Amino acid sequence: MSLGRKIIIYTILIAISLTTLFPFLWMVSSSFKTMGEIFSLTPSFIPDNIFAEGMWDNYKAILQEYNFLRFIFNSFVVAGLAALGQLFTCSLGGFAFARMEFRFKEVIFALMLATMMMPIQVTIIPEYFIMLKLNWYNTYLPLIVPSMLIGSFGTFLLRSTFENMPSSMEEAAFIDGVSDWQMFYMVFLPNAKPALASLFIIAFMNNWNALLRPVIYIDKPDLYTITMGLAMFKGNYGTQWHLLLAGSVLSILPLLVVYMSMQKYFVRGMLTTGTKG
Amino acid sequence: MKYKKITPWLFLIPTLLGLIFFRLGPMLAAGLASFTRWNVFSPPEWIGFGNYIELFNSGTFQMILKNTFIFSGLFVPGVMAAALFLALLVNNKLRGMTFFRGLFYLPVITSVVSVGVIWSWILSPRFGLLYQLVNKFFDIARLPSFLGQPEYALYTLIFVYVWKMAGYQMILFLAGLQNIPQVYYEAATIDGASIWQKFRYITLPLLTPTTFFVLIISIIMSLKTFELTYIMTQGGPNYASTTLIYSIYVNAFKHFRMGFASAMSYILFIIVAVFTYLNFKFKKRWVHYSE
Q1: CA distance B163 to B146
Q2: Which residues 168-187 on chain B approach chain A with CB closer than 8 angstroms?
């Protein structure tokens, strides 16, 4: 490739990177500013109080006074349990679809795929009444249970993972006389770790970012998830941008850390959702 | 050497519970509910097609449908063009491409709520970042309020959502691009084809299956956009940015018109079902195409 072309490509790449990064960077910088500084008519990228007294004031306020510490904890519980639950549901289901023969197998699998793309708004009204009947309103259960039991994508992902493993593995284990559960848990599951990691990350991310179910099922502030807490804060104190932006940074941070450390699994998982879903 | 007959059913218990109680059952129930007048406080009352008739006679609903079509109609080509452009860029074999891929993917992993917060702030009138920057460099007296004025709100949402999601479609296109055998390009280079000719006569046609798939995914994605509307405009001002999916939420959980909202959710159901069907139908065809 000619040098001229390389320069053009890098220039475009950097320009787009700025478009992508600029809002985030400016948000991080502003999350340290005082309200007055944010509304200043001559904005500067570097906050006045950086590495100085009061640098963390916004974060302290949002975490303690506005309860964001609790929201973050709630989100970890909800997203973590829902993602673990999905691993359980999807690996069992995926294993059955991949390795076993049973009646209605194709029908069940087709129904699962067919309903995969349906937005939850289509099912949310009857679901709401199920939750009311179960007395699950204002608990974490409506945020966890449906999500952990509906893992069409994950089941699909794990089905293809288990399908691609050699039958020789299975035959050898049968000769050793393992039970069906041992076959799943001790022979196949340890070999599916990369797929499980992808699924966990994606399920965690989706649940961390979810908004509709928390908004509908939770109205006790102590139970808010971080996204809901952020949405409510914006509704109630919409002009306090310094706090709102600090909260927004906090809501992104955990996912960012996971993303940076496990980018490989992220992208692979997303690819499978896409190209095979 | 076989699994016990009962084992698959035991293994499928969680999957089946989810499928029955949170997917198929509610879909059926929503269909029935759409023929009733029903608020939370009194039992449902059968009114036949009453809700549907009311919907299609309502000016607001026509506006909501129009908004939904505008949203999908602009979001889908916008996000696809942006994503294809990004994918072509990061598909170059140059140093640092993994870094750029990761970077362009960043908005996808951040929550819609925080993206909504960031852009609400950038676009907030008078003190928002955009206004400050524009005022700093150009002497424009007043920019419009992009979220507060009905003529701009919907388009602003579309723009922000394209900005957020393009990285996702980029990854899908990238996978498609990497499946195109290099030999075609090498042969074309020998024949003296220009970059544009290679794109037009090799990349585009061989990318068709991916493109079609991305199209379907993007359409469904556009129909599902709820969070961004919730956080940025709440459907306003005056329904200007209300789409079908947002309206379901408002009617069900703000006005508690469960039957009416179910009718809307059924209209959404039918639209999504059509696209899901198209996806399945054409996917089978691609297998022949690529083999």
Answers
A1: 16
A2: 168, 171-172, 175
